[in-house]
Amino acid sequence: MNSTISPKSSSTRINLQRRAFLQHSLRNLAGFSLASALGLIGCSNNAVVPRPSAPIPLPWDALASALQGRLLRPGQPNFDSASAPWNLRYAGLKPAAVARCLSVEDVRASLLWATNHGVPLVARSGGHSYAGYSLTKGLMIDVSQMRALSLDANTGLVKVAGGARNATVYEALRAPSLAVTHGRCRQVGVAGLALGGGIGFNMRARGLTCDQLVETEIVLASGDILTCNETQNSDLFWACRGAGGGNFGIHTAFTFQTFPVSTVTVYRLAWQAKTREVLEKLIDVLLTAPDKLGCKVSVDARPGKPLEVVLLGQLVGTPDELNAILAEVTTQFSPISSDIKTVSYWDGQEYLSEDGDPEYSHERSRYVFGNLSAAALDAIFDHMGRWPGTSVGATWKFFLMGGAVAARADDATAYNHRKATMLSSIDLEWSPADSPGLMLKNQAWLSGFHEAMRPHTSEQSYQNFIDDSQRDFLRSYYGDNLERLVQIKRHYDPTNVFCYRQSIPTAL
Hints:
With 508 residues, the protein is of the alpha+beta class. Helices cover 26% and strands 22% of the residues. It contains 14 helices and 20 strands.
């Protein structure tokens, strides 16, 4: 192997805690910026590192020759598509190169080359980081081409490569009628989903995606390739189930315990009249619903349309059972539309899912513990009624938690929001047709709405809805598990190679 990508000796190890990494806050809003600063800032002390007047050329050819996959540079075919983010407000940020890895050896070679040459790096799987943290000005280590999947029919264990998407899982598990807890967006990477916890309509009955993870393979900044499970590197395995995204290494494989599925009742009901009363009654009813019901409730605002409350989800049961659960709501408030049907599990997921195409968006989350008060409902409808408007839409929503998620202790895994009853969020979407002035009003509205919900919810936020505007973000994402996570970070990534603005540090 070329010497430029061999493991580092202690004499050549770079102090990466001082090295600057490209970061950003809320930028590139549909062709304009709320602020123009896109800088290199050190994660440990935020000190700006001066740029040399005459940069030394990097040996990109050496890296390219070491890869089974391709190294893409600006101007080459497929570079733009390979480096494009899902969240288009960060589309102006481009890497110096994209290593399209085909194997764990490619990942290791890319990592060691970047660290040996002091090049900022980031891992990319699905690319759906809400805050654009799968972007870098340096080397993007892209595992999205690694989508192999194998199933052991005897044990029900499924092993997926680090670049597998929800769509990969859908396709592979349909025929054997198996599932894991998965998301609704087909193009979301399994890696990011599981490493941040992983919510889905199965979670109340079966637990989070990370609860079904039994093993993962990870490449550390040192080049070491580790297997992590309950007996091997168990501390890192604990951390990866809820805090693994971009913090400790690059994951190249995941093994999950599947469960059998057969039929489900899927449903979508919508109301446009007495929406506040509908939401209040829905929450009361859903908080006592059986664990086999999974759902999302949203208050949707769309241009030129009245506010609409929408209930979407699945029940492992019959339409009669669903109607009995919802009877208190539907007898008092007639929906304008009601679609309820029993289908095979995977046909049901096609009904419930969306592609997850690129968009301009900003989502801000808060966990709810218990019910929402009358004051909370007033705040929701007051702010939704004062939405400044975009060409796309805005939503307040919640996913019903509890059940198998809450059955485990908050410190059983790094995911620490176990006892929440709801995961709520505010989602703002727009397009390039929306003017800079209008978007400034929308961002002010979003910040005000998020702050107004603070007294009625909690300080906790979902790490997979990562938010570059969230204050005290480490506590919001990791709570009382933070100190243990910092210790694990210091052990496995002591020079802080895996570093971005909201990453877990090596010290508090």
